[in-house]
Specification:
40% of the residues lie in helices and 27% in strands. By secondary structure, it is of the alpha/beta class. The longest helix has 25 residues. It starts with a helix and ends with a helix. The model has no long low-confidence stretch (mean pLDDT 87).
Length: 299
């Protein structure tokens, strides 16, 4: 039996099981009842096992039939998902695109390229909601959510835009006034501006890991505010490299203890990424946005 024939027969078999009878399945598929029966018989002959127990009153699955039905349904779903995954490629990106993203990252990384994106796709309209809190894509009717950190929710598909590293740094003016820390113990003599509640930092050098409780003078869930505090010589900050590239290049901000890998305890910061629902077909407007910003933000 050719592959196309047994795949078609497999679909008919699934339909018969779902409908509970040959006649109802025939009506659903637009086929004659004898045709449906012949295709199921041909599938059983091809497999060499009986899939259905037939009586005058009802149909029931054999043990082999139950196993085959589960696998066949999975194949059927995979085929549908495969067709959906590429169905948007020929569509012209159009419509309202609703995006949620953190305020600072929108201003620094999304907004500078948004005009170019809209010129490339004039039929797309954008609604960007700037919010640092986690939002429910279904409840808030969002097409995309942009986040920075670690993608842990397996119910969504995460597409990486760019890796993110954290840099412990201070302004050159602050270091001239307060001194440049040379050891971990020196950090206790310096002010620290902390993201949210995270005042404990992990310092890793080779195989050794040290945890330091920083002397926090300002805490905020606004990364922009923390960058401003470092810029205003208030203290040391652990800041995302993607947001302070100009300051690092101009040496306005100076890295501290660069031999250490510094991270925030209990907070993973790995990448900037976009999330979309894996339960729906990806519209062409979503694909266009993801492809455009992946290209713009990759180092």
């Amino acid at each position: 039996m050719q592959t196309s024939n047994w795949l078609a027969n497999m679909q008919v078999f699934v339909s018969v099981v779902d409908c509970g009878s040959f006649s109802q399945s025939a009506r659903r598929l637009g086929l004659s009842q004898p045709s449906v029966s012949r295709q199921v018989n041909a599938l059983e002959q091809h497999l060499g096992v009986r899939l259905l127990q037939r009586t005058t009153r009802r149909l029931s699955l054999t043990e082999a039939g139950l196993l085959y039905y589960d696998k066949a349904r999975a194949i059927q779903r995979s085929v549908i998902e495969a067709n959906q995954a590429v169905s948007g490629f020929n569509d012209s990106p159009t419509g309202l695109l609703k995006v949620a993203a953190p305020m600072t990252w929108t201003e620094a990384k999304i907004a500078p390229h948004l005009g170019e994106f809209l010129r490339l796709y004039p039929d797309i309209k954008i609604d960007i909601r700037c919010n640092d809190s986690i939002q429910d894509m279904v409840e808030d009717q969002l097409d995309l959510v942009i986040r920075v950190g670690h993608a842990a929710d397996s119910s969504y598909i995460a597409v990486p835009f760019a890796p993110v590293s954290l840099v412990l740094c201070a302004s050159s003016a602050y270091l001239r006034d307060k001194g440049h820390p040379q050891t971990l113990s020196d950090l206790h003599n310096h002010a620290y501006v902390a993201y949210d509640k995270y005042s404990h930092l992990n310092f890793k050098h080779k195989t050794k890991l040290h945890e330091i409780s920083m002397n926090t003078v300002v805490r905020s869930n606004s990364v922009k505010l923390l960058i401003d505090m470092v810029d205003q010589d208030v203290g040391i900050g652990l800041l995302p490299d993607l947001l302070i590239q100009p300051q690092l290049k101009s040496e306005t901000f100076v890295p501290i203890l660069p031999d250490y890998d510094v991270s925030i305890k209990n907070l993973q910061v790995e990448q900037m990424f976009a999330m979309y629902s894996s339960r729906q077909q990806m519209p062409s407007k979503v694909r266009a946005f993801i492809d455009f910003y992946r290209n713009k933000l990759q180092p």
